[in-house]
Design brief:
The protein has 326 residues and is an alpha+beta fold. Helix content is 61%, strand content 9%. The chain is built from ten helices and five strands. The protein has helices at 11-20, 22-41, 63-66, 81-91, 94-103, 106-109, 120-131, 151-209, 232-268, 293-324, and strands at 46-55, 132-136, 142-148, 276-280, 288-290. Strands 1, 2, 3, 4 and 5 form a five-stranded antiparallel β-sheet that branches. The chain is rod-shaped and about 140 Å long.
């Protein structure tokens, strides 16, 4: 490096600058590393709890499978893409997250005053959501994670998140089946009232015209006897009784059909069907998630070393340029 040629930015010049300023460079690097070490020493250690599950097949516990009249093709116990999507959305919903925050008193755990701070609840939710994760994998299953300084608490939250997700999925299916059953029950009540009126009318007509045979055309081969009688009044009565009995029989069959369907939907609302299949429950003592103290100190030392070297190079360049123009 000469006055005419100036400072060359090759490896040898950088080494010469480094050796010249070595005390300053090493001193700054060690000082930065010591500060980083003190900083990381007072940082709390965080642990990462982990669990995963497969959503259950919705068809397996569905009415179409429970009350099938013929053998069906193979139905997998595990859900497909639709079930995975539903579980993902529900597991990340406010219902699940808010339940976890309230159950484990995360506001107290994070030492956030939600009573006096108008933004307190929002701060708790944001901090919790930052540490909580429910994500899809490439194997049609979902992974649940939570990071916290308390490994036992993190493990409990992961397991409760899976339980709550299953509970919310089950609640949705139960509600749909229950509402469908209720609508059928309402229709049955309406039919029962109509049947009461039709039964009274049919009984009065049979007594009036003296016709006690089963003559509804819908019964076909179930007709027990042939009506006997003659005259215009008997013929008119026969037609009236036949029409009323046919309508009554149709209402009776509808009521039986609705009752059967209602019972099927009620069976679908049974709360014992599994909605997820947990393949790994979280256990206390999960792996450390941070901070990486040794790595952080070494990274700080390296960054300070490079920064100090760059400062030294800039100073040498300025000195060289100043000398050239004097």
């Amino acid at each position: 490096m000469t006055e005419n040629s100036g400072l060359r930015f090759d490896l040898f010049d950088i080494i010469k600058v480094g050796l010249k300023w070595k005390k300053m460079i090493i001193g700054i690097s060690i000082s930065a590393a010591l500060i980083a070490a003190v900083f990381f020493f007072f940082q709390k250690t965080y642990y990462k709890a982990y669990g995963h599950f497969f959503p259950a097949s919705a068809v397996m516990s569905g009415r179409i499978n429970l009350f099938r009249e013929s053998n069906q093709d193979w139905i997998d116990f595990f859900g497909g893409e639709n079930e995975v999507d539903r579980a993902y959305v529900i597991g990340n919903s406010a219902n699940v997250v808010s339940h976890l925050i309230e159950k484990y008193k995360m506001a107290d755990h994070y030492k956030i005053d939600v009573k006096n701070d108008p933004q307190g609840n929002q701060k708790v939710y944001k901090r919790f959501a930052k540490n909580y994760g429910l994500n899809r994998s490439g194997f049609k299953h979902l992974e649940v994670t939570f990071m916290d300084e308390n490994s036992d608490l993190a493990s409990q939250i992961v397991n409760e998140a899976m339980n709550k997700t299953e509970s919310e999925i089950r609640k949705l299916y139960e509600n749909v089946n229950r509402q469908l059953s209720m609508s059928l029950d309402i229709r049955m009540d309406s039919i029962s009232k109509d049947l009461t009126i039709m039964t009274d009318s049919l009984a009065n007509l049979r007594v009036k015209y003296g016709i006690y045979d089963l003559i509804a055309p819908g019964r076909k081969n179930l007709i027990s006897s042939q009506p006997k009688g003659s005259g215009l009044q008997y013929a008119q009565g026969l037609e009236i009784v036949q029409n009323v009995e046919e309508v009554k029989n149709k209402l009776t069959m509808d009521k039986a059909k609705y009752m059967s369907l209602s019972n099927e939907f009620k069976a679908g609302s049974f709360d014992g069907f599994p909605m997820i299949h947990v393949t790994q429950w979280s256990t206390p003592g999960g792996p450390k998630a941070g901070p990486m103290r040794i790595l952080g100190v070494l990274a700080t030392f390296a960054a300070a070393f490079i920064f100090s070297l760059l400062v030294a190079i800039v100073v040498e360049v300025l000195k060289t340029q100043k000398a050239r123009f004097q």
